[in-house]
Design goal:
Elements (H helix, E strand, L loop, with lengths): L6 H33 L12 H13 L2 H20 L11 H81 L6
Length: 184
């Protein structure tokens, strides 16, 4: 005689089915995510090669924006001014240091475009990273929404199965009350 399936057996079977479906869906999602991450791996070699101008601009900006550069330039300026004021050497640039002003203006005129190019390139990189961050946030939002939907579906199924189990138990209780109990 075949054993009658109880509501508990039905619920456990459905849980196993859901668990298997969840595992498959999770594996598929992980595989898809790995593929996307490999395509956008920041440690991978950059797809675009920097031009000579971009490399020079980055190098000039990083050099001029360092304490080493400021200290060396300050020392050179101090020596220049000291030598011209004290006249240990022939005064090649007497006060008000017109030659020094010309040299510093020349330096600033050429440094500014290099620094601007480096900043523009960094701004483009930052914009791309912000776009990637935005895409990740949207994906996370969608996945959270899907999880909410999945939990809602699980709750609905659980309520349905519990309702069926209560109905089956009610039927069993009615049958038990109708049939005479064992003799004592």
């Amino acid at each position: 005689m075949a054993r009658r399936r109880t509501p508990l057996d039905t619920v456990q079977a459905l849980r196993r089915q859901l668990h298997e479906a969840e595992e498959k869906l999770l594996a598929d999602l992980r595989e898809l995510s790995r593929g996307r991450r490999a395509a956008r791996d920041p440690t991978a070699a950059p797809t675009e090669q920097l031009t000579l101008g971009q490399r020079v601009a980055d190098r000039v900006a990083s050099t001029m924006g360092s304490w080493t550069f400021i200290i060396i330039q300050s020392a050179i300026l101090a020596v220049w001014i000291t030598l011209n004021v004290t006249a240990y050497v022939q005064r090649w640039d007497p006060y008000p240091f017109i030659l020094l002003n010309l040299a510093l203006s020349f330096q600033a005129a050429y440094a500014a475009p290099f620094i601007m190019m480096a900043q523009n390139r960094q701004q483009d990189i930052d914009r791309k990273e912000a776009q990637r961050d935005h895409e990740v946030n949207i994906k996370a939002e969608l996945e959270i929404e899907l999880l909410h939907q999945k939990i809602d579906e699980l709750r609905e199924k659980e309520v349905l199965y519990l309702t069926e189990a209560i109905r089956d138990l009610a039927v069993l209780l009615r049958k038990a009350n109708i049939q005479p109990g064992p003799a004592e």
